[in-house]
Amino acid sequence: MFEANLSATLPKPAFYDELAMQARALFAGESNRIANAANFSALLYHALPDLNWAGFYFMTDGELVVGPFQGKPACVRIALGRGVCGRAAQTRETQLVPDVRAFPDHIACDAASRSEIVVPLQTSAGELIGVLDIDSPQLARFDDEDRQGLEALARLFVASIEG
After folding, report:
1. Which stretches make up the GAF domain (predicted)?
2. Residue 9 pLDDT grade (very low, low, confident, very high; cuts 50, 70, 90)
């Protein structure tokens, strides 16, 4: 069984470097999108402090459809441009939201969520395959170091399923 042994007391860049090493180990020899997304969402949920949701939405027939995740049940389908996930997918830019209640058109799947970061997932050819969505019950939980670390981890995930 895989065990996440990370210290949240590390400086964030070092923490994300360690998390990347563990993600690479999870992805080693496996290219199945669902398997890697399931393990990766579990790794993030248990390694990152102060989360209440970590998971994926994948592009399916022009909209985002929930994929593997950890946390409470989630919204199943999200239109491009709707909420934080839809905006990240539409703009193909990471959305770092310190207070989701101040975000226009926020979709509240879990009323406990107060901050959110959503990273678009793009293949090396530029195709949008979905988003990595992470929520916290803590206001302003995510910062630019988290953005950089999670974008790097998202690239590792995409590389793992591209073969």
Report:
1. 47-159
2. confident
